[in-house]
Amino acid sequence: MSDRAKILAEMNDRSREVFRRVVEGYLDSGDPVGSRTLTRAMSEKVSAATIRNVMQDLEYLGLLDSPHTSAGRIPTQLGLRMFVDGLMEVSTLSLQDREAIDATTGGKEPGVASLLDRVGQALSGITHGASLVLTPKHEAPIRHIEFVSLGPERALVVLVFADGQVENRVFTPPLGQTPSSMREAANFLNVLAEGRTLSELRVHMRTEIARRRQELDAAAHALVESGLAVWENPGEATERLIVRGRANLIDQADEADLDRIRTLFDDLERKRDIAEFLELAEAGEGVRIFIGSENKLFSLSGSSLVVSPYMNADRKIIGAVGVIGPTRLNYGRIVPIVDYTAQLVGRLLSGERKG
């Protein structure tokens, strides 16, 4: 059980109701919710003083906050996340929303790009937020790859395919990457990429990593057997070969062997980083809600993202649709809208590709 689930399970009915009503009031109005407002809404008759005590306890737990000098409370990011995960009631898709989404299928302009453009406009209009539409992944052979740093936690991969199409994808790079390391990764991949699709390139990288790992194990075996070295964190990405008794190595270990081991380590680490780039560039998430700073792309604007993948006839994720808005999104209403839209797009594209 997660810490959030544990906190929720340990709340009594009154605390849970106060918490739920504060969050729902905030999501509805955007304003802090005060104790006097809650006394009129609670299912049991309690005083404003009692509710204030409960709110203080919830604030102590990090679930509520009191902005400025206001007597009311608003949910924190942790509070919103706990509400979404444990207390939110997802509403049924309304007939009006369903009709607006269904209307995107009747456009005069044919083609996938036109359909997705209509879907984006419909999502934006229905939810009064910004829409996010990721187009189907391209499986043509790659002609060129380039990584561009957009900041400490954002990067862009530019994929140029053999059929002339170009895709730009934003992702969160592995920690510690620099513009120069990204250029090096791109140069390395471009040598391997010719004639391969993105999926084939990723499989090839895994094979390369496994091969280098076998070489490293063989080179280090004698050192480990002799007790001069030991593996730390074996099998993990952070593993290291710790050399003991360095003075003894002068007599017992060939310096060339140690240099080769160091080179293999550097090469393995570089290939792992590059493989992680590929994984992130190609990743397709399941249905997700990102709140505030959980959402790396939009955290600076204090936004939330509700996103759902859409799949082809083979149940393979080929793209995603979503809605971006303030953290006080009406999550209960938007989740079914995004979910229904993703399913509709998947069905339409599968039908189009069959035809």
TrEMBL record:
<dbReference type="Pfam" id="PF01628">
    <property type="entry name" value="HrcA"/>
</dbReference>
<feature type="domain" description="Heat-inducible transcription repressor HrcA C-terminal">
    <location>
        <begin position="114"/>
        <end position="335"/>
    </location>
</feature>
<dbReference type="InterPro" id="IPR023120">
    <property type="entry name" value="WHTH_transcript_rep_HrcA_IDD"/>
</dbReference>
<dbReference type="InterPro" id="IPR036388">
    <property type="entry name" value="WH-like_DNA-bd_sf"/>
</dbReference>
<dbReference type="InterPro" id="IPR029016">
    <property type="entry name" value="GAF-like_dom_sf"/>
</dbReference>
<comment type="similarity">
    <text>Belongs to the HrcA family.</text>
</comment>
<dbReference type="InterPro" id="IPR002571">
    <property type="entry name" value="HrcA"/>
</dbReference>
<dbReference type="InterPro" id="IPR036390">
    <property type="entry name" value="WH_DNA-bd_sf"/>
</dbReference>
<protein>
    <recommendedName>
        <fullName>Heat-inducible transcription repressor HrcA</fullName>
    </recommendedName>
</protein>
<keyword id="KW-0346">Stress response</keyword>
<dbReference type="InterPro" id="IPR021153">
    <property type="entry name" value="HrcA_C"/>
</dbReference>
<keyword id="KW-0678">Repressor</keyword>
<comment type="function">
    <text>Negative regulator of class I heat shock genes (grpE-dnaK-dnaJ and groELS operons). Prevents heat-shock induction of these operons.</text>
</comment>
<keyword id="KW-0805">Transcription regulation</keyword>
<keyword id="KW-0804">Transcription</keyword>
